[in-house]
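Quick note —
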Amino acid sequence: MAKFSCLVPAAALLIAPMAHADERPTAKLVRCAGGDCLLIRGERRSADTTITINDRAVAASGGRGWKVRVPVAAMRGFASPFARTLDVAVVDATGHVERLETVRLPVGLMGHTTELASLVVRAR
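Predicted structure written out below.
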């Protein structure tokens, strides 16, 4: 019983930092004035930091809980064709990267579309 009572406080100390850890940034496709945009949200320690996507600074709104709307057409310039993730970083005023996370893109967002003149479907 003495061993168990020593493990409980140790486990609590290990779990506590994870409970207060910042959430990972997320990305989803939304409508905006110019068409489709990618909405990326995340958290940071201070509103004075800069958000970068694939090493390009972007204008973020909000304080500690920030969000960025980037048109899909502009995002194609940020990412490689068929990309599935983006690197999102929080950079302080001195240029030090406070946090770097990989964000998953919506499925097929960076793929290319093929225009079909017609599609033939046959029943067997």
